[in-house]
Model the fold of this input.
Amino acid sequence: MNATATDEDEGRFAAHAVTLTVNGQRRQVEIQPWVTLLDLLRERLGLTGSKKGCDHGQCGACTVLVNGHRINACLTLAVMHEGAEVITVEGLAEGDALHPLQAAFIEHDAFQCGYCTPGQICSALGLIVEGEARSADEIREAMSGNLCRCGAYPNILAAIEQVLADDERRPE
Amino acid sequence: MTVVRSPLGQPLDRVDGVSKVTGQARYAAEFTEPGLLHGCVLGSRIARGRILAIDAEDAMDVAGVHLVLSHRNRPRMAADDESYEDADAAEGSPFRPLYDERILYSGQPVALVVADTPELARYAASLVHVEYEEEAHETDLCGLLEHAHAAPAKLPPARGDADAALAGSALCIEVEYLSPVEHHNPLEPHASTVLVQPDGSLLIHDKTQGTQNSQSYICQVFGLDPKRVRVCAAFVGGAFGSGLRPQYQLTLAVMAALKLGRSVRVALSRPQMFTFGYRPRTVQRLRLGAAANGRLQGLSHLAIGQTSRFEDFTEHVVEWSGMLYQCDNVHLDYRLVPLDVHTPLDMRAPGAALGLYALECAMDELACAVAIDPLQLRLLNYADANQNEGKPFSSKALRDCYRQGAERFGWSRRPLEPRSLRDGHELIGWGMAGGVWEALQMPASAKASLGGDGILRVSSATTDIGTGTYTAMTQVAAAEFGLPVERVAFRLGDSSLPTAPLQGGSATVSSVGTAVQQACVALKSKLFDIARQRPGSAFAGLTLEQVCFAEGRLSRRDDPDQAIELSDLIGSGAPLEARVDAKPDPRREAFSSATHSAVFVEVRVDEALGRVRVSRVVSAVAAGRVVNPKTTRSQILGGVVWGIGMALQEETLIDHRLGRYMNHDLAEYHVPVHADIGEIEVLFVEEEDLVVNALGSKGVGEIGIVGVAAAVANAVYHATGRRVRELPITLDKLL
Done:
């Protein structure tokens, strides 16, 4: 990272060069220090799949995976993620082949308006990687940072349970 | 011949599902172009008064800031109220954003800062200094009830003599219920992106439940030619009523675009989502009089709601009490108290969510007084006709809802006595309520066209706010044309498409679905005419009823081998199209049409902590024919979740000293999260309705929430023996 800001910049701070990998693609960007990871994705990289529902880490619509962990992209500054691996909802499908979670969300009608959906799916992916939630109540608890105002919770739960069950059945 | 199963009634996956799970669906704030500017709204810190001065110098000094817009330098706007009236306007003078120096409510937009980036706009907005002259404000409904005036609503006339009947009843209960301000809080904050086209016309991506409503509003307010303003809403991240009126971010974004001649986006922050419409705080007083056996003798229902000083917002709060039960002596009254707040706005099941909460809690209290099962009380007072209108129902399968819902829930095992079920430290309670919502139909238009590629293209300007319009309309068109759904493409969310009403009131399937169906019939008729007029046609002399459209072919019913490919009829020329304007069938006028529901709830209340959990819900719904059981079930699930939020969590609290909402974000305005929602089972009972529309289908957007808060409150009483008559039922009210 390379800072060149001076007080003489009349309120404007110099951009910082940041390199990160987004959905497998290396991206080098020049950004202001106050730009959140979410705004970098949505406003600078054209990846509007990650949603902005509150900008304060209260709704989970912006959930993405950074180095494999689910985080609220609105609560972290982009300049803090030099060298990070970021996965957004746009990076889950392989061509036309949907990720099992995406397919399960469609099958179980686990969304209505679709605005919380990218965050729910990324959060569910993080939850599966964490490997700690097994029962319905544990999944509910571990997904409670992701609000769905349409109230699709029972269907989201069913979709995640199905993917977890399929994962268990699959031979190692 | 293969028989194609009609797509109507099939649990089809959402046709827009892939775009939503891959992040490709784009919402209003997600359209961009090089040089797009960003606006940040600055809201008033006072609740009433006027702006004395706006000092924008510091903000304008920030490099990258282009404009600080206020009433001082805005473009010209209409000066008459009519120009600001939209399709869902309340009675009065609509709010005019940045119109003049008057402050009508706290949070009212007073300036828009436009800059190169959203961060710069937000920073510069913090540098704008506004000087106010403050006036005393009033925001507390409960302190001003005696100042209420009659609401400008056409209530059903009083029938019989309610006062005399109540006085003469063996049993009489008199109760008051309170409900707070609630905000819609769709997960997508309101936003408008105004893209100035090379010819100067405006392409606007708006968060709205009515693209044409936004379009005509903008044209009226700014004196623009409708041909030069196009409003699109391909995807809407929830609305629940918040998009029924054009919201101020749209007006401000257009203003800035006109002023600068550049494309501008204005996206509201979550706290700003609390600066326009909401479900109004309401006080309801009910009196129910019954014979000793529980038969209703008299009913009186008064609702007093808050409104703004500039508009009288009305909704159907009390009407339901005159139609859900058989009662010959009914008096309904509805009053409003104007406050220094924004005008309320329809919010999921507007009026009914409130009115049925009070009515169905009061019925539970009456059941206790009579000492009979609450479900038994409802069956005893079942209304076979709508007494408000003196008309029979076009269909009403509420008895089946009661019966099937109760059976699935296991209601017959419910002990009558409260506080008689327990599991360790948790008290268990079972409660129920009925629900009703009107089955509306509005005029709507649609276009259907078929080209040489064999794809049926159907369109209407309606929206899909998550309700499944794309999918349901695809099914309606595919069914009518005998095509697989993969060969149907439905377009919506564009003001340039055929006229559609606002997407509200659970009327879209009924209104737009009818138009889509009729457009398909009209197109089939055109195709049939072409086939019939061909020399030596096998269809000469036949009528439309004697032929069959299936699998992209037209064939004779009496001789299916006589068939022709539809693509042959069109050839390589222009697509053949048909456009219709559909109206409600006049046969509806002789009937009352409504959806009904019965909802059964189990709560578990922690005896020591007062924490309430809804562990189990069964919602049985009668809504005519279900076009798509998968998406329709989701609608009901969502409604139930909303009802649980209304019962236990949702409340926007105002500090009356400041006249300002204090919990204006999603950390402090609580909506249900995953962990709050247990098992919810949805049943659709059979209901044939040959009158409501040709599809026989009633909408379901509202009915899912109706009655849920009452069922929860009744279950809490059954668990604890405590009647909490004020929503939400938070633990402090139970300890």
